[in-house]
Amino acid sequence: MTLELWCIGRSKQAWLRGAIETYVARLPHLIPFRYEELPGPRLPPKPSPSKILALEGDYVTSHLKPGDRLYLFDEAGRAMDSRTFATYLERTQHQTGSRVVFLIGGAYGFGESLRARAVGTVSLSPMTLSHQLVRAVALEQLYRAMSILRNLPYHND
């Protein structure tokens, strides 16, 4: 099984790139891992939010393979503490022999097509977080979960 984190759009801020690179370098030591910043679909001039969501949904779906298990990081998802998330992640590993893909959406979140395709939705916070900032938070939580599962001294209860 391979764990992947996909994000729609590129990260441009240097401080954010540093945080992303830290966890992207650490995770492959614990699990086969890949981080992907998808450039996103070509948008027409002045698209409505619903048009953006539909185009992003089609774009992401075109990158998924039939056996992929898609999970969304979304503020309306299931809230968990870090240990519960580690258990959740462990269960996903046993449910598939293919890729487990966690997705961070664009500025408008997710459209109905991606919500329908997803097998789970996880909240990192009940607060609304920037779709840029949430990348570092998601990577840190994936690393923390894998550290918990490997009994490494990263997480303190």
Describe the protein in words.
There is one protein chain. 41% of the residues lie in helices and 22% in strands. The protein contains 5 helices and 5 strands. The protein has a 5-stranded parallel β-sheet. α1 runs parallel beside α5 (133-149) and α3 (82-94) packs across α5. It is globular. The model has no long low-confidence stretch (mean pLDDT 93).
| Major sheet strand order | 2-1-4-3-5
Q: If helices are DSSP runs of H or I spanning 4 or more residues, what is the number of helices? A: 5
* Gap between N and C termini: 28 Å
Mind summarizing the main beta sheet? 5 strands, parallel
Mean pLDDT across all residues, rounded?
Answer: 93
| Helix content estimate | 40-55%
Q: In sequence order, what are the helices and strands, one letter per element?
A: EHEHEHEHEH
Uncertain runs are: none
Give the overall form.
globular
Structural class: alpha/beta
* Quantity of strands, as a count: 5
Rg (C-alpha, Å)? 15 Å
% residues in beta strands: 15-25%
